[in-house]
């Protein structure tokens, strides 16, 4: 069994290796390839990962591969992708430039999130083309952001077997189970990546959602989102439990003010944390994942990723939250829309479970709106068409103003042009 990790220089990679070690009884990994385009990070992170595998006594051949996709992908069974096109400095631009236009700057939301998609989708399309040649039967598990937009692009414009992943669902679902003291509950998670709701909390045949709403229950906050929380009245107005990223949409003004007055952007803080982690990783005596990694905001994503690999490989048939084609799971969205829902996972991939909880008209309308934005944004990413980007931004709830969006878009294209080859014709 060969696993290829693309973007292996990420400081998150020890999380993945820990997950592989923990699943050694059911995942017979014989080859693990770490591929990256950043030599320094690949050597530092890859060396720690190799020490972890050796210390665990895992009978697994490892290889560090610099900037050779074809060689790394050859014969892979699973490709785990965690790329960041333009690295963290590009994220900081996504965060800072929009603030000049009174727009939220964020990694996956609004115009900043769209630009991460514009940079990332063409690279992911190229990776899939190489997979078709070198590992045509492999599964692509993607947790590069924006995960939902990438799934929308790849699932509708390639034939790759893939699923998108995020660590928000597992943290949200487990937080709700703890808060409600319902350890065995089926928690229905429904919507789009970073735009989702909890619509059912069912245990022993009873749905506890209304009790949760009456208690004003909020979803688990993530380390990378400064949470303010929803009041009981606000949760009641929505009609379901909103997940943490929805704070950017429902509390747009206060989120914008917070970002404008923050001493550093999250991206700048991540750059500091990354350097601190790389310093720690270089300790030759270190052979386990360091505790400091939890500050990076990716808690439990290795568990999510390796659980998914395990369920496909062993045809487990358990329920996990993934980004896949809708196929009727959410009846008010198109079957070909990429959605983030509960699905049964086995050797043939994900079978989305039909959403049966109560979905209010408000939620339907908001989800249709954000999905329409994503579709236009994906077209812009694939074609380099500014008009499609404008159509996306004018219906994005965090943008809206065509004049402002256009001016911000032009500055961001100029700032990122090195990573936006599809827009170079627009600039010339």
Q: How many E strands?
A: 13
Largest beta-sheet characterization = 7 strands, antiparallel
- The mean pLDDT is 94
Q: List low-confidence stretches.
A: none
Overall body shape = globular
Helix content: 40-55%
Distance between the termini: 47 Å
Rg calculated over all Cα atoms: 21 Å
Structural class of the secondary structure composition?
alpha/beta
Give me the number of helical elements.
Answer: 17
How much strand?
15-25%
Write the element-wise H/E pattern from the N-terminal end onward: EHEHEHEHHEHEHEEEHHEHHHHEEEHHHH
Walkthrough of the structure:
- The protein contains 17 helices and 13 strands.
- By secondary structure, the protein is of the alpha/beta class.
- The protein has helices spanning 13-22, 39-56, 69-73, 87-100, 110-134, 147-157, 168-180, 209-214, 232-238, 247-250, 252-261, 266-281, 301-313, 361-383, 386-395, 402-416, 424-427; strands spanning 2-6, 31-36, 61-66, 78-81, 139-142, 161-164, 186-192, 195-203, 206-207, 241-242, 318-325, 338-346, 349-352.
- The model has no long low-confidence stretch (mean pLDDT 94).
- 48% of the residues lie in helices and 16% in strands.
- Strands 7, 8, 9, 10, 11, 12 and 13 form a 7-stranded antiparallel beta sheet that branches. It has a 6-stranded parallel beta sheet with strand order 3-2-1-4-5-6, sandwiched between helices.
- A hairpin with a 2-residue loop joins strand 8 and strand 9.
- The radius of gyration is 21 Å and the shape is globular.
